[in-house]
Amino acid sequence: MKETEKVLKKKLLIVEDNQDSRELVIKILRNRDYQLIEAVDGEDGLEKAIAEQPDIILLDISLPKMGGYEVAENLRLREEFKYTPIIALTAHAMKGDEEKALHGGFSGYISKPINVRELPGQIEKYVEGGRYKVE
Ligand code: MN
Description:
Elements: H1 3-8, E1 10-15, H2 19-29, E2 34-39, H3 42-52, E3 56-60, H4 68-76, E4 86-91, H5 95-102, E5 108-112, H6 119-128
Parallel strand pairs: 1-2, 1-3, 3-4, 4-5
Helix pairs in contact: 3-4
């Protein structure tokens, strides 16, 4: 990859313990303008976020070691993540999660199962919105 391409690509961190879901997201976004980083549980997600400073984070709610809400809460405490789009991945069955996510440090949510055709647009909506503070 050329240096200029590296600069233009947004870094996207996907934190998802389910391998199939994680690989699906990566497959959908592979040919788009993202540099993809993967984390497999909450602790891994927090560590990779701090180390890699992603521009956008897709964060599963239900994760081993540290849940999505706790990861989001920890990230929002850090100055560098105050404006970063952090999008919750919520299971359809967990209806209350969507409302809760909007009050829990997340910028928004994307419902699972992931819609292959809609995902890129759903993410772009947050990227275009830029970095904004979530109270
Ligand atoms: Mn999960």
